[in-house]
Design a protein that fits this description.
Layout lengths: L6 H5 L7 H52 L4 H5 L1 H4 L14 H6 L49 E2 L15 H4 L2 E4 L11 E8 L3 E2 L5 E2 L1 H4 L1 E9 L5 E9 L4
Antiparallel strand pairs: 1-2, 2-3, 3-6, 4-5, 6-7
């Protein structure tokens, strides 16, 4: 008959895993497993952040290219006369004395949804509403397939209750922040907010003359934000000039 197994014989049994080895394995597993899970979570977050940044850069370049097309159709110029006509065509930058006008003159809007209306129902800063149809130089309607220049990229009419609370800019500037609504918006990780700053520049030529800004364009700073976190993801600067 087999003798009873004592605790000491079980601990020293070489045929299987001893109790000490089992306890050691459990301790190691309890340390390694959380670290491994943490690594997986951190790696997933890094991949997500890289995806968001990649998307933000794509949004930035899409809008920049689109602005180049729209410069040919006058639409952005018509929406921003206070920027282009009052400040952008001057030999030296002019700052309107009225603080509200000064802020408006330092931002471009890219869609009619960004127009600020006065109490009488008129555009407050002389914006002109672009025609929804594409017209050629002779004033004739262009028919056929939709033209890429007519697509909406930014919408300034915020959904109900959505006020970008985490965006760290003043309320006066926040009204010129729009949401990207371009062709890829439904496949993107987050909603991207867009702010377009404009600054007429004084540029000195080799002869010492001041070049007017309508010749060289205005300096545009295009900023893209994560609308959920309020973080600025990317920005770019370029000179933009509408065809007159």
């Amino acid at each position: 008959m087999r003798k009873g197994v004592t605790l000491s014989s079980f601990i020293s049994d070489e045929e299987g895993m001893s109790l000490v080895e089992l306890l050691g394995a459990m301790v190691i597993l309890s340390i390694v497993l959380p670290l491994f899970i943490g690594f997986i979570i951190t790696n997933a977050k890094m991949i997500e952040q890289n995806t968001i940044l990649t998307e933000a850069i794509a949004v930035r370049e899409e809008i920049r290219e689109w602005m180049g097309y729209r410069a040919q159709s006058q639409d952005i110029a018509d929406l921003n006369p206070i920027v282009l006509a009052n400040t952008g065509h001057q030999p030296r930058p002019i700052i309107p004395p009225n603080p509200e006008e000064a802020i408006r003159a330092s931002h471009l809007i890219l869609d009619k949804s960004g127009i600020v209306w006065d109490t009488s129902g008129q555009p407050k800063f002389d914006e002109k509403i672009p025609n929804d149809q594409l017209i050629d130089d002779d004033g004739k309607l262009i028919t056929g397939s939709d033209n890429r220049k007519r697509t909406q990229q930014v919408n300034y009419t915020m959904p109900a209750g959505f006020s970008l609370p985490k965006l760290n800019i003043s309320a006066d500037r926040k009204r010129y922040v729009g949401m990207y609504v371009g062709p890829d918006v439904t496949q993107q990780k987050v909603a991207y907010a867009v702010l377009v700053e404009a600054a007429p520049k004084q540029i000195m030529t080799k002869s010492g003359d001041i070049t007017e800004n309508n010749d060289v364009g205005i300096l545009v700073t295009l900023r893209i934000y994560n609308s959920e976190s309020g973080k600025e993801l990317t920005n770019t600067q370029f000179y933009w000039s509408a065809d007159y």
